[in-house]
Amino acid sequence: MSVIDITIVALILVVGMGLIIFAVRQMNQSKAISERLDQYTDVSLSLEELELQQPFSERVLKPLFRSLLTTLGRFGLKQNQERLRVNLQLAGNPGNITPNMFIGLRMALAISLLVVVGLLVIGRLPFMQALMGTLIAAMIGYILPGIWLDRKIKERKKNILKALPDALDLLCISVEAGLAFDLALQRVAQKWDNELSREFQRVLQDIRLGRTRREALRDLVTRTGVEDVQTFVSAVIQADQLGVSMSKILRIQSDQLRVRRRQRAEEAAQKAPVKMLIPMVFLIFPALFVVILGPAVPRIMQALGVMNSNMGN
Q: For residues 197 and 113, what is the distance between their CA atoms, to the nearest angstrom?
């Protein structure tokens, strides 16, 4: 082969390799574009496909557990079901638990502890002691969910009370800047992600669904159970009825809440020395007594021994 033929073959190979590389890049680019477009376009999936995309725990275990608790709750005590519903609402409806499910949770935990403790103590302890232990375990299992719910309520009220002064400051500034009350409330709800902002979002949803502002705000008081929220809602409703400037009312409420927060901080500071007495008496003072009086104990014992011997003589 001549040099010209070799050159032509080489050019053909280079051009062919270039075309192949160009085609592969175009395919990858089109694939990347399609994947990016799929992220922003709605893909029509059937209900079965949407359900299969969820994890096994969400599809099977969680519904089975909820149905089991609901079934057990039907056999429990229902005298205070309305009060239980209010308490679950004050706790923020953790896990979307219904009153029947909560009663079922109590019964399930009581039965579980009754069986476990009974298997552990029956045959190893006398019958009366074993029976008493299993009954106490069942009572503890029945009481524990109530303790957990009370802690959730206190924690939620504390978080709402902590976030309220800052939220009212932003609400007051937004209203003074010219925003309507509902738009200012929406701005506050979008600013943070906490218990109070979620409650404000629910108030806005209730207003969009056709409820009056007064009814939505009163439901806010019922759901939170915080005294400062009730004072704020009462002032807003009164200002709305009487036509008083909303910015002035919000400014007064914001100043009062900040004063109350400072007073609560001072009260907590005054309680701190009293709370420190228990660890000081039972933990710090014994250690100090051991360090200070420890070396003197042998000498005292020796001196007392010498005195006893002299008295005996």
A: 39
